[in-house]
Amino acid sequence: MKLNQKVRTIREMNHWTQEQMAEKLDMSVNGYAKIERGESKLSLEKLEQIANLFNMDALEFMNATQKGVYFLHNDSVDNNVVYYGQNDESLLAEIEKLKLMLKHKDDLLEQRQQEINRLDRIVNLLEQK
Fold first, then answer.
1. CB within 10 Å: which end of the chain, N or C, has fewer?
2. In 65-80, which positions are buried (b, 16+ CB within 10 angstroms) versus exposed (e)?
3. Band of the pLDDT at 89, cuts 50, 70, 90?
4. To the nearest whole percent, how much of the chain has pLDDT over 70?
5. Contact 13/84 with Cβ under 8 angstroms?
6. How many whole angstroms separate alpha carbon 102 and alpha carbon 41?
7. What's the pTM value of the predicted model, to 2 decimals?
8. Judging by beta carbons within 10 Å of its beta carbon (0-12, 13-18, 19+), is residue 85 exposed, middle or buried?
């Protein structure tokens, strides 16, 4: 996906209109729309402004556009994190790896809870004496 398409995708993920983006970037709606259509090249300064709006630095934003992966943190009260990615084998492998890591974490938490329960029983027995 090209940079202009990624800008549009992330803008839409944030539920912002082109008008809102243009206002945030202090530019005309037509000027911003040209960026999204790929009719106008992004200057480094404008790229940094856009990346900052998405709570990213320019390099992180550029890397995200090459990989097709985004993690957006919503600063609202509900603290949502949104993931967007393209469906290729490397991403699917990464997802499987993360699932295994989560399963391992859950197993460790279950073991810890069992140990806490065992220690609680010991404490209760000692208190009864």
1. C
2. beeeebebeeeeeeee
3. low
4. 78
5. yes
6. 41
7. 0.51
8. middle
